[in-house]
């Protein structure tokens, strides 16, 4: 029986490990969200977009733990699968198929947007923050958890071999927390609240890969990379910000 209970993640520890692993599309989404939410101010009744929500585990968590109204938008997962997951969990949330650059929402609709382990697929585009923040109310919150490097690949001069072997060129979208801080702060579109590299990032990621391997009876795809890394380069960045009220110049 896989154990995903962690004293540092008391809210996530309430969830059934088998259910969580059945929603697996990437490492420890609830641990990431619970940690990220420490930098956010989520209040009951808020309208929250879970962007790149996968099979919906984080949406269930948002609705249950914070009492927010959730719109779960994802590209790869059929929304009927996600909606069935919500029904089974007794959660009232909306599942939508949507591409991150063509979101079907009104401007200034959301109080908050969270994105767990998905922003790396589209969010490094210099134009993206301006687009995404149009869907936030002034003062609305944006929080992301995204795979991160302890040092910029540009500074290293190469993608470390064990990362390149699994992730290939896509690792160029894995940045340091400081990279994200500057990338957002310099736009004046948002005020960065926090941009931090998760201290437990590599350890948590490995623990999830080991749990997933045990659950599925086959080694998780990232296990070899994480064991080779030993926390030298890999972690997660947790970045949160508020949309500014002023018009950027
Ligand atoms: C690694 S999975 C993580 C899913 C979920 N957030 C979790 O942590 O379990 C990445 C998710 O990003 C979504 N995604 C990738 N590119 C996207 C895009 N252009 N627009 C919307 N969603 C996208 C995929 O559909 C996928 O579900």
Could you name the key traits of this structure?
Rossmann fold; binds S-adenosylmethionine; 249 residues; 22% strand; 10 helices; seven-stranded mixed β-sheet; alpha/beta
Structure overview:
By secondary structure, this protein is of the alpha/beta class. The protein has a single domain (12-238), classed as Rossmann fold, CATH 3.40.50.150. It has ten helices and seven strands. The chain has a seven-stranded mixed β-sheet with strand order 3-2-1-4-5-7-6, sandwiched between helices. Strand 1, helix 3 and strand 2 (69-74) form a beta-alpha-beta unit. Helix 7 packs antiparallel against helix 10 (223-229). The protein binds S-adenosylmethionine. The site of S-adenosylmethionine has 19 residues, from helix 3. Residues 25-26, 29, 52-54, 57-58, 74-77, 99-100, 116-118, 121-122 line the site of S-adenosylmethionine.
Q: Which helices and strands, and how do they pair?
A:
Layout: H1 17-22, H2 29-36, E1 47-51, H3 57-66, E2 69-74, H4 79-89, E3 94-97, E4 110-116, H5 128-133, E5 136-149, H6 153-156, H7 161-167, H8 177-185, E6 190-197, H9 201-216, H10 223-229, E7 234-243
Parallel strand pairs: 1-2, 1-4, 2-3, 4-5
Antiparallel strand pairs: 5-7, 6-7
Helix pairs in contact: 7-10
The chain binds S-adenosylmethionine.
S-adenosylmethionine is lined by residues 25-26, 29, 52-54, 57-58, 74-77, 99-100, 116-118, 121-122.
């Amino acid at each position: 029986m896989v154990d995903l209970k962690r004293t540092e993640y008391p809210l996530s520890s309430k969830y059934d490990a088998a259910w969580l692993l059945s929603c697996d599309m990437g490492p420890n989404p609830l641990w990431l969200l619970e940690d990220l939410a420490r930098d956010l101010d989520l209040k009951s009744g808020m309208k929250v977009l879970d962007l790149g929500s996968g099979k919906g585990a984080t949406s269930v968590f948002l609705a249950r733990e914070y009492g927010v109204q959730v719109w779960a938008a994802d590209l790869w997962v059929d929304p009927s699968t996600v909606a069935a997951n919500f029904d089974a969990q007794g959660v009232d949330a909306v599942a939508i198929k949507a591409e991150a650059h063509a979101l079907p929402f009104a401007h200034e609709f959301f109080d908050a947007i969270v994105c767990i382990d998905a922003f790396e697929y589209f969010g490094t585009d210099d134009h993206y923050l301006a687009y995404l923040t149009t869907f936030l109310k002034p003062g609305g919150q944006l929080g992301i958890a995204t795979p991160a490097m302890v040092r910029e690949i540009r500074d290293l001069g190469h993608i470390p071999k064990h990362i390149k072997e699994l992730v290939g060129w896509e690792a160029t979208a894995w940045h340091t927390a400081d990279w994200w801080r500057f990338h957002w702060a310099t736009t004046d579109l948002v005020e960065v609240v926090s941009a931090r590299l998760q201290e437990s990032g590599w350890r948590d990621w490995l623990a999830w890969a080991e749990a997933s391997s045990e659950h599925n009876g086959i080694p998780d795809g990232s296990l070899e990379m994480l064991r080779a890394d030993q926390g030298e380069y890999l972690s997660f960045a947790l970045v949160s910000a508020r949309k500014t009220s002023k018009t950027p110049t």
